[in-house]
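Need residues for this backbone.
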């Protein structure tokens, strides 16, 4: 959930190589295993996940996450011909991806869905909201609800930016399967999320780990940390073919706030195959 949008990047490196853990980092991961979230607590968090995100947006409104002006730089697939694209953003939040893209002149019709009704309310309250261009609605993407809102085989792209990490890994396949149904043949999934052994994973204390690479935060929201191997297997098992799949490593520095941290994200683009196997 960390947002370092305003922090200066010292460097950016793209790699497919696994991270090399220091002895200290490995000790941190071992210590996390000393106290795992109980099954009862994990089930309670799952049951109340919508409530936790709604409280998050009630407390933060549109102030927490910064507008994502980097999207077209990182995903050149969003650029190109002038033909209007039909794009779904899952986990749209308050519109930090959609509104910058529209301001840049992207010719697109957006579907925007989020788990939190408050997030959708906030997105619609933006002065730039235009219902002719943005169809925003509340939706649980791990159910079949999504494919009742959008015609199958109709989308050019789906964006999943820091959203799949908030979902229990047992439900990742359901989400990807639903995305597959909505995309046209050759349609693209643009994905960016937390990479395995990112700083945010390594700073969790004992008592926060739910399962492998999956953690709960103090506010009840959760975060999964992806390896490129796991994500590629997830996508290919659901009928997608890889265009790109890599780690994006950064070191971000804010001298004023005394922040100097390494970040590790996974960034991927996958295409829907003509037929699903």
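Answer:
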């Amino acid at each position: 959930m960390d947002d370092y949008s305003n922090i200066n990047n010292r460097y950016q490196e793209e790699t497919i190589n696994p991270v090399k853990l220091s002895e200290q980092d490995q000790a941190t991961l071992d210590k996390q295993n000393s106290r795992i979230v109980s099954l009862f607590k994990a089930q309670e968090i799952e049951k109340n996940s919508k409530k936790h995100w709604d409280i998050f947006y009630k407390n933060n409104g549109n102030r927490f996450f910064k507008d994502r002006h980097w999207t077209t730089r990182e995903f050149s697939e969003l650029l190109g011909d002038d033909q209007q694209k039909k794009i779904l953003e899952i986990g749209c939040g308050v519109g930090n991806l959609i509104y910058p893209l529209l301001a840049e002149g992207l010719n697109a019709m957006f579907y925007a869905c989020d788990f939190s009704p408050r997030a959708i309310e906030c997105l619609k309250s933006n002065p730039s909201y235009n219902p002719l261009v943005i169809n925003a609605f509340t939706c649980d993407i791990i159910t079949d609800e999504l494919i009742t809102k959008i015609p199958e085989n109709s989308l050019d792209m789906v964006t999943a930016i820091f959203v799949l990490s908030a979902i229990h890994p047992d439900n990742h396949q359901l989400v990807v399967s639903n995305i597959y149904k909505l995309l046209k043949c050759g349609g693209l999934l643009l994905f960016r999320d937390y990479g395995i052994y990112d700083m945010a994973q390594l700073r969790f204390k004992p008592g926060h780990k739910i399962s492998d690479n999956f953690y709960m935060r103090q506010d009840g929201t959760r975060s999964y940390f992806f390896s490129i191997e796991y994500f590629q297997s997830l996508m290919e098992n659901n009928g997608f073919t890889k265009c790109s799949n890599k780690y994006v490593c950064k070191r971000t520095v804010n001298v004023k706030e005394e922040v100097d941290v390494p970040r590790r994200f996974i960034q991927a683009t996958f295409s829907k195959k003509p037929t699903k196997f």
